[in-house]
Amino acid sequence: MAQNNNKLGGRNIKSNLEKLGFSAHDATVYLALLGTKEPIIAGPIISETGLHRNIVYTSLEHLLARKLVAERAIRGKKHFSIASPTVIKDEFARKALLAKETRQTITEAMTHDAQEITIHSGNEEYLALLTGILSSMPKGSDKYVLGTGGEAFMRTTMRPIWKHYHKVAEAQEIAIHMLGYESQRGAIEPDIAGLDYYDVHYLPNEIENPAGLHIYPSVGIVLNIIYSDKNTPVTAIKIKNKALTEGYLNLFKNLRKMAS
What we know:
Layout: E1 7-8, E2 11-12, H1 13-19, H2 24-34, H3 42-49, H4 53-65, E3 69-74, E4 77-82, H5 86-110, E5 116-121, H6 123-136, E6 142-146, H7 151-171, E7 175-181, H8 185-192, E8 198-203, E9 211-216, E10 221-226, E11 235-240, H9 242-256
Parallel strand pairs: 6-7, 7-8
Antiparallel strand pairs: 1-2, 3-4, 5-11, 6-9, 9-10, 10-11
Helix pairs in contact: 1-2, 2-3, 2-4, 6-7
């Protein structure tokens, strides 16, 4: 048998085989067979490798199962030889396909639209929530706001965070579609003057709601906003639910037909 099969053409074949999933013993037995020109019995492999006979036979079974080694009987004795090396390529092509299919399955499971509900209170948490959602949205996305709060909410919460919030909105090129109420017009208009990415309309006061909704269709998130005043901090209930988001978006679009 040929010696020093670990290196052929300057390449460390044994190391490469182990990286391809061969055990150290399987790689050693495989390389021992690589040094033969004719099929051989197990005895010379045992002598060549110095491995226990049971280990050699176990490795031969592994290699036969993977079709990396061929077996045939000559005069009643089992002889072994290397199979075509294309078997290695074919085996890992199948594994690559399996890995791709498994990755896709896992990705789909991870991105399944599971409902998530969290509560955020106070200006700092509210700002972090708003900017975090905006940053997660694809550039050029749309945000929908139903109800905007009055002067107390603008003074206690929105104006203190206004610059930072809109810096992120502008960086993400977010278009903000807003439905306020006529009673809120005076509190809103001075602050949004000159911000051309706002599209604001007003609903009659008769249908005014004491809470607000922020709708983010691109990420399947709805925020239910409880407005702040001098005694109560702003509170936002974040709901991640695609079906609910679509439902609220339809509500917004229907109410938009009633707005001026």
